[in-house]
Design brief:
With 1420 residues, the chain is of the alpha/beta class. It is 44% helix and 11% strand. The relative contact order is 0.05.
Length: 1420
């Protein structure tokens, strides 16, 4: 690799290097890229001349050198280069291994780093042209080890690239080269003594190392040199690059070296956090004493706080409780045994070599010497040589060189001095707190030390460039404990970020100032916060056995509610377990100082302390907690209210310990209490759930655990690979006909058993599916069977499925009903919910003893799923909907727990009435319909005996006797008559059996309801319903996380889980529903896990950009499984949108066609009234010189687009479109609010126009649809977050019949990621083409597209507003003329504003003459 003369200027190579996470910038740290910059910058000119377009261009190294030297110093420049495809079309295309310049290699890495920062696919260019990657990877690794010509900023760029390499091991091209750097051969760098110890512990490793040496002997000289370099790479990185840099940092040194060292720690943490990279590396890091060396550095002791936090993370993973070689988690006992073996080895070495000095130490019990204080006490009297000799005996350091070699010996003594050896001994042999104990002693509420630490909880302006002390959620985890722990920390910090925003908002609103008497004065007020009038700790309970913190800490908080009635009610309505925060502020500013809301928060308000608490209840006049219940709450006098709260015992212990050490008593200083919105305040319950899981034996099904952690064969849990396989299955009402059955298995030979030629077999079918390697051996043996007669009434006829499932949907249903893990990828409109419902129905009928848990992300999706379940043949007594949100169900029935209890009780009474009617019809005396027990006796001795007598004589009956001997004729007098048809004996007997099944079902249900007679309280009945009666239980993932403890305590059990919207659920919220039950005999009874989602649509919502980008917290478990290669069933036919609209997002999926009804149904054949096109993008220029605006950070608005969208909606309403069929979407919250304001101003209160169905954001509308979508893209300077293709897919796929997009076309069509969609959009005119003579619904077909001359072309937004205003006036006039003259009509004068304009008139009111524009003018 040729080198570049000299280092580039200081301004270069800043991208991807600065540590933006360390401090909150005053302004925006995320650089934005505008379309004007794209069009005018020199980079755009270079791109146009050298690599843009499809034609091949020649390569010039001078261009690369020039860009590297002059353009890579600013983030905007790098963004431009990335957008212009500098990497794909120039750098990688012309890269030559070992010959391309240093600038060329580093430029490639910078561009890859930028792609990771922008969260766009980074390795596509390398996968498309992989031949040069081995040489490139070698160039990069050699550059890290020998960067003599590079600055530390440039070296950091290379390190960041290597971090991305090891976080992309799912890419085959990356993995095969990266794993060589962390293979077993790196143990050749260990000290001989340490290697010998390892061979004793694991003898097979010696064989493997011998095999490596033999293999080396067969390599050529060049191959051997390369192999040696790879196995020494990390060793040399640490010893030759990291250690010298670490020791060279001084207090006055620049931060570049510190940032370099922080990135090295980040790399080591990432390697330690994945088993394939950790397995052999952890031993090397321990042998090199990385943690101890870093702790003794100046940068740790007096320098970077971030470095210290990263080192704490590395130390945690170095000592993680896992067997590195086997990957098995280690128990506390195993960790204690390892600790004891180490201490015994230390004592033995001390006794044998330093009997006099360390005799007492050698003979002491372990517990008395394994603390850090004891170790320092016993080992400090030894001098340097004695400590060195002891360390050599323990294989901690190498043998010392001879004293004759003064230089080497001096270096040795300098490296292994007494202080270092003491620290090493203590680090190696002190007893550590177990990870579980550490978590149990951690406070759950964030404090001020965490809330405003930018390294842990970055602010709003994280750019994706800096290094942070945060865990990452990538592909693999070490153990379930590691999995839970990372999610615990990230969930806690994400909640902390939201809490910080709430605290800053509330405290700013309260405007704390310092009064003349040095007390705190509040000049404002806040709805969510109140000043504290009094605070007293009223109880500190004794610790429980084995704990060292109080069992419970309670306090009373008094506040003065001298506020409006609605706010007072909100405070008085605080419920048990609601979370609040106690805050201490001591402002230094007096009332004369104004607040600067853009400045630093803490110095202005003087915030000192933040502590969390949990509401127990409000106190009554007697000081007792007011219990929640049906009784009315007592009316309290005055405005003072006192709340009893629970404090965090762990935090209280820490604060009291600090107070005993001389610090201030935190609990005597609080002067503000803040509450939060209930929906945003469930973080503590979720954190407690995760902590409970870490303290219990997390038993995940054996067939799932490896996949969950990211190891093993990703297809091992597929139903075809499971040990248990369902051979024959009743598919119930899945198929509509025999033809549908045969069409559903195109790769199988469908054979009907007992089939009569020429006679069609009717469903339902029982199938036995035989899978072979070729089509000849793939068979489906089908047998139809007749549904049993359930009774003579209409409601006895079972409900049936009416959907003709596609072959792919049938495969998804087959996979879901079999054992194992099923993942269904459902593009928009492909019937994901219908598939889910059919899976549930088939499980319900085939395995009636099993219970199925349904989990979704949102209440809306859960209700949609539940409503479709109710349409199938599932007994509603077996349905249960848990959590809030059931009120959204479109039914009068209550499916909540207490609603189901009431249903059972009312059903019991109705059934007992039927029993009484049956008793009367049989002429039986007595009160047999009093209870379920008496009814059971009546059935056994009166009903069943009569039926058995009747059935016993069947063989002797004639056709007439089947009816005449039937004993229950009087009971079925209310059934459709005649009861028996008299056509055949067999048919009448079937009717008789159906009648008895109806009677038997009455008593079967009463037998199931009998426990509800014995259980007297509503809570007991609800609990029984949950754990016994309900077969299909539905809840949101949030409810599952909040109520896990209660569900486990109630012994809740289930066999199957079906998750809808899986790609939108947080990883941890997807995992928790797996463990809502206790294991049975050490095994999880879960048999099936069906996940349905679409990773090509939007992921879970993460508000903090750092957690989203750096920690990858937005990655759902569904997406991670897809990345790991878990087999999926990809639904391949959509039935939502017109084919032309579906083409806008069809390209994103492997295969996505249209269902037959898309071309057959009338609504899809008809055109959109008043519009020339069924979809169109309308270019919206600046209005009055203004495009997008940003009144608040990230609160983007565009007035021109808002007016245009609302005018289009008004136009549609005037043509007759129903308002409920129109939705207005936008990509930003700011625009959503602006649209609502414009609608309220223009037409919201007008009964002729009204409001659209919804005005919301694209993100909020995911999972929903409407016939017509009006979409505002808002941005005019840069693409913004629409560059995320997942958001584009959601935006394009919400419309069924019409999609009208308003935006700045020149900006979006140049974005590479959006090209497949916008290429189609811009093929149509960019001005709105209308046909105002049409009305809704139109008789025009889509195929009859009107010509350009027939359409009215709207030039811009003012013209549209004027046109709609005129159209409205003419429409009203026509309506007035059509009214009968004799009917008096009250007309309302239009209100006139002060300026003489009619209120509600559009922005522009001047007359505009329309002319027909040609296509070239329309497209600009």
């Amino acid at each position: 690799m040729a080198s570049v003369q000299g280092e580039p200027p200081a301004k270069a190579l800043k991208h991807g290097v600065q540590n933006k996470g360390a401090a909150k910038p005053k302004g925006r740290s995320i650089n934005t890229l505008t379309v004007e910059q794209l069009e005018s910058d020199v980079i755009s000119q270079l791109a146009a001349e050298n690599w843009s377009g499809s034609t091949a261009k020649s390569f010039s190294s001078e261009i690369v050198e020039n860009i590297y030297t002059n353009e890579l110093g600013a983030v905007k420049k790098v963004m431009m280069l990335e957008v212009s495809q500098y990497l794909e079309k120039y750098l990688w295309k012309f890269y030559v291994p070992h010959k391309s310049s240093l600038s060329h290699v580093i430029s490639i890495m910078i561009m890859v780093n930028e792609k990771f920062r922008e969260r766009v696919p980074a390795w596509e260019a390398f996968k498309n042209s992989p031949d040069n990657f081995p040489g490139f990877f070698e160039d990069v690794t050699r550059l890290i080890i020998s960067p003599d010509s590079l600055s530390y900023k440039s070296q950091t760029v290379v390190l960041v690239f290597l971090i991305h390499i090891f976080n992309s091991l799912e890419v085959d091209l990356i993995r095969q080269h990266a794993q060589k750097l962390v293979s077993l051969s790196i143990w050749t760098n260990l000290k001989p003594g340490r290697l010998s110890e390892l061979y004793k512990e694991t003898p097979k490793m010696k064989k493997f190392m011998s095999a490596i040496k033999k293999q080396d002997g067969r390599l050529s000289k060049e191959e051997l040199q390369k192999a040696v370099f790879e196995r020494q790479f990390l060793y040399r990185l640490i010893t030759e690059r990291f250690y010298p840099t670490l020791h060279s940092i001084t207090e006055k040194d620049s931060t570049d070296k510190t940032h370099y060292c922080e990135r090295v720690l980040e790399l080591l943490i990432d390697l330690q956090a994945q088993l394939p990279t950790r397995r052999f590396l952890n031993t090397l890091l321990d042998d090199l004493h990385v943690v101890v060396t870093c702790k003794r550095s100046l940068v740790f002791q007096k320098g970077s706080k971030l470095f210290s936090q990263l080192l704490d993370m590395l130390e945690f993973y170095v000592g993680f409780e896992i067997n590195d070689l086997t990957g098995e988690p280690m128990t506390d006992k195993e960790m204690t045994d390892i600790h004891y073996r180490r201490i015994r080895a230390l004592q033995k070495a001390a006794f044998c070599n330093f009997g006099e000095e360390l005799r007492r130490f050698a003979l002491s019990n372990v517990a008395s010497i394994d603390s850090d204080g004891s170790l320092y006490k016993y080992l400090s009297p030894l001098d340097d040589k004695q400590l060195s000799a002891l360390a050599v005996k323990l294989s901690l350091i190498p043998e010392p060189p001879s004293e004759a070699d003064e230089v080497e010996f001096g270096s040795y003594t300098k490296t292994y001095n007494k202080e270092f050896l003491l620290d090493l001994m203590v680090f190696r042999y002190e007893r550590r707190l177990s990870q579980i104990e550490a978590i149990n002693e951690m406070p759950l509420y964030p404090t001020e030390a965490i809330v405003w630490d930018e390294n842990i909880v970055p602010g709003d302006y994280y750019s994706g460039q800096g290094c942070l002390a945060l865990p990452k959620l990538n592909l693999q985890f070490l153990t379930l404990h590691d999995y839970l722990l990372r999610n615990f920390h990230l969930f806690r910090l994400e909640s902390t970020y939201e809490i910080r925003q709430d605290i800053e908002d509330a405290v700013y609103r309260m405007k704390p100032w310092m009064s003349e008497s040095d007390t705190t004065l509040f000049g404002g007020w806040a709805r969510m916060a109140q000043p504290i009038e009094g605070f007293n700790v009223v109880e500190v309970a004794k610790p429980k056995l084995g704990e060292n913190h109080p069992a419970r800490v309670r306090a009373d908080v008094s506040i003065l509610l001298n506020t409006r009635g609605n706010i007072r009610n909100e405070w008085e309505s605080l419920r048990k377990h609601d979370v609040a925060f106690l805050i201490t502020v001591r402002p230094s500013n007096t009332t004369s100082v104004r607040y600067n809301f853009k400045g630093d928060f803490i110095p202005q308000v003087g915030l000192l302390y933040v502590r969390g608490c949990e509401i127990e209840g409000m106190l009554d006049a007697d000081g007792r907690v007011i219990e929640e219940g049906p009784e009315p709450r007592p009316q309290l006098r005055g405005n003072v209210r006192t709340f009893r709260v629970w404090l965090d015992p762990n935090q209280y212990k820490r604060d009291m310990t600090a107070h005993e050490g001389g610090q201030e008593d935190v609990y005597g200083t609080f002067n503000i209490i803040m509450r939060r919105k209930p929906k945003e305040n469930n973080f503590k319950a979720v954190l407690e759930t995760i902590r409970d899981l870490m303290n219990t034996e997390c038993v995940v099904p054996d067939w799932l655990q490896d996949i969950l952690l990211g190891y093993g064969d990703p297809g091992s849990a597929h139903y075809s690979r499971m040990e248990k396989h369902i051979g024959t299955l009743d598919w119930n009402d899945t198929f509509l006909s025999e033809e549908h059955l045969k069409h559903s298995f195109p790769d199988h030979d469908v054979v009907m058993e007992k089939s009569e030629e020429g006679v069609e077999n009717l469903p339902p079918f029982t199938l036995t599916i035989e899978d072979g390697e070729d089509k000849e051996s793939k068979k489906v043996l089908a047998q139809n069977h007749q549904m049993l007669n359930r009774g003579p009434y209409e409601y006895n006829v079972p409900k049936k499925n009416s959907i003709k499932f596609t072959p792919t949907q049938v495969e998804a249903i087959r996979a879901g009903t079999n054992y194992g893990l099923t993942m269904v990828v459902g593009p928009p409109g492909t019937g994901k919910t219908d598939v889910a419902v059919q899976i549930i129905s088939n499980l319900y009928h085939n395995f009636p003893e099993q219970r199925t848990l349904i989990v979704t992300h949102s209440n809306q999706a859960l209700n949609q799923l539940f409503e479709k379940i109710m349409e199938l043949d599932i007994d509603e007594r077996h349905l249960l909907r848990m959590g809030h949100g059931e009120e959204g169900l479109e039914t009068d029935k209550d499916f909540s727990r207490y609603g189901r209890v009431n249903f059972v009780l009312s059903q019991r009474l109705a059934l007992l009435e039927e029993v009484g009617r049956l008793q009367t019809s049989l002429g039986v005396q007595g009160d047999v319909s009093y209870t379920c027990e008496t009814a059971a006796h009546f059935y056994l001795y009166q009903v069943l005996s009569r039926w058995e007598k009747y059935a016993g004589g069947y063989d002797t009956y004639s056709l007439e006797q089947v009816s005449s001997e039937f004993p229950f004729h009087p009971f079925f007098q209310d059934a459709p008559q005649p009861l028996f048809k008299g056509k055949s004996k067999e048919l009448d007997w079937e009717i008789a059996e159906g009648c008895f099944r109806h009677i038997k079902r009455i008593f079967t249900q009463l037998d199931e309801f009998r426990p509800f007679e014995l259980l007297r309280s509503g809570a007991d009945r609800a609990r029984y319903l949950l754990i016994k009666e309900a077969k299909i239980i539905a809840m949101t993932c949030t409810h599952a996380a909040l109520k896990r403890h209660d569900l486990v305590a109630a012994r809740f059990q289930y066999d199957n889980i079906l998750m809808e919207e899986s790609a939108q659920i947080l990883e941890i919220e997807t995992f928790i529903p797996l463990l809502l039950q206790n294991p049975e005999d050490g095994f999880n009874r879960l048999k099936r896990w069906i996940m349905i989602g679409d990773h090509h649509q939007l992921p879970p919502v993460i508000k903090n950009m750092a957690f989203q980008k750096y920690s990858n917290m937005e990655q759902s478990l569904f997406t991670r499984f897809v990345r790991l290669g878990v087999p999926t069933v990809d639904l391949d036919a959509q039935g939502r949108a017109r084919g032309s609209i579906a083409n806008l997002y069809r390209w994103r999926y492997k295969k996505l066609g249209d269902l037959s009804h898309i071309s057959q149904l009338e609504q899809y054949k008809m055109a959109n009234a008043g519009f020339r096109f069924d979809f169109q993008i309308v270019d919206v220029p600046d209005f009055n010189g203004v495009g997008e605006s940003e009144p608040n950070p990230y609160f983007y608005q565009n007035l021109a687009e808002a007016e245009y969208c609302v005018a289009t909606f008004m136009y549609m309403r005037l043509l007759g479109y129903p308002a409920e069929k129109i939705t207005i979407l936008t990509t930003y919250n700011g625009q959503k609010h602006l649209l609502r304001d414009v609608i309220a101003q223009r037409c919201g209160a007008n009964p002729l126009i009204g409001q659209p169905h919804k005005v919301t954001t694209v993100d909020r509308f995911q999972g929903q649809q409407n016939d017509y979508i009006i979409l505002s893209l808002v941005r005019t300077r840069n693409v913004g977050h629409l560059r995320d293709v997942r958001r584009l897919v959601v935006a394009m796929s919400r419309a069924r019949l019409g999609l009208y997009v308003f935006g700045r076309v020149s900006l979006f069509q140049n974005c590479v990621e959006l090209t497949p969609t916008f290429t189609q959009l811009v093929q149509r005119p960019l001005r709105l083409h209308l046909l105002p003579s049409e009305t809704y619904p139109t008789s025009r077909l889509v195929a009859d597209s009107p010509s350009r001359e027939d359409a009215m072309i709207i030039p811009d937004m003012p013209a549209m507003c004027q046109f709609v205003y005129d159209l409205y006036g003419s429409s009203v006039e026509m309506m007035m003329q059509s009214l009968p003259k004799e009917v008096p009509v009250e007309t309302e004068e239009k209100p006139v504003e002060d300026d003489g304009k009619v209120k509600g008139q559009p922005v522009v009111t001047k007359e505009i003459e329309f002319e027909v524009l040609d296509d070239s003018a329309a497209k600009e």
